[in-house]
Amino acid sequence: MGAEAATGTDATKRPTRDNGVVGLGAAGAAVTAATVLTNGLAYLVPMLGARQLSAPDLGALATVLALGAIAAVPGFGLQIAVAAHRARWGPSGALRLALGTAAFTAGVTLAAAPVLAAALRLPIALTLLLAPTTFATVLAGCWLGELQGDQRFLRLSAAMIGLAAGRYGGLIVGLALGWGPVGSLILGTLAGFLVLPVLAWLAASTVGGPASGGRGTGTSVGDTRNRRLTGSQVMTASAATLAMLVISYADLILARQLLPATGSGGYAVGSVLTKGALWAPQVVTLLVLPRLAWGDRRARALALGLIVSSGVVLVVASAVLGELAFRLVGGADYLHLAGEAPLFAATGALYAVVFMLVNDRVATGARWPAAPLWVATASLVAAALLVAPRTVGGVLSCALVTAAVTAAVMTWLAFRPTRG
To answer: Cα(222)–Cα(97) distance, rounded to whole angstroms?
Structure first.
């Protein structure tokens, strides 16, 4: 099926002007600033915790926050699904589905709390707090998706900042006040709930109603109302998000299992370059997703070009400044790995391409959009366990080859000729 047919719209029915949509330059700057601030607040939590908490308490809080990031995956899937659906069909009445998704995810997290507490030697109070925290984070994905799908990117950036202030601001204040892990997480959870009405207001409040920029106008109001977002669409997007998370961390986990302590530590330092090259161009994917939902091939090609260009720049920079990068991230003890810096960066850059193309397949309603990623993850694990030398270079080579092959497969799926 062609890209135009997949979206249910055609180019002649699309407006040539995006009403109420800010210029992409300003949008990109705003969303980039919001992303930088969000990441800055996220990094501030462990930095402050290292100064305020004992080592056991810091380890417990860091573990719970990592579990929270995993539990929040349905929230990212919900955002992608809502954004793509809203861009294609307009308002979808997704709030009830979002509440159900958030409640189900929180319920699973609550049921798992005693098991996680026992298996990971965590205070039960911390694992129980994961449930309300997860509920608020997942539910927020609904309003973020509405703003993204409507291309109201300045409001989206404000919502992202508000969500980050809620998720991390309460934690930061609690840690600064010396409330410990449990008290800080309680404050962070309360702040996360308090920001939800602000997100709802940002998504609903706009002059002249929701932006319609770019959506196909050939669908009648009655048809639009019947095209409601379904749970299967949210599950598909969530599974794709989970696959992206798993494959991006698989090599780091394998390094932890297969390498000696010094090698694992060195790989962890190098993986900072991987994550930097992976996440640096993600603002492009966020901005282009509504156009991907329309089946806009030109936008897809332009986005891919921008992401590839970003990757090339980062790989070259890491080749030139690899020693400086390792010195800043890990210190002098890891300078012997500076020659591997371009390989770490190249792995992240290739995964950035993969992630954009996975989002493209989710947005256009492709079946099993993340299947290549699960196959790639299994292949990476098999190669690392059975073939690769037990060295930093061995694990890294497996990760780089996996990323390159996966990027090639996803590119072929995106640009292969369609049958007439």
So the answer is: 20
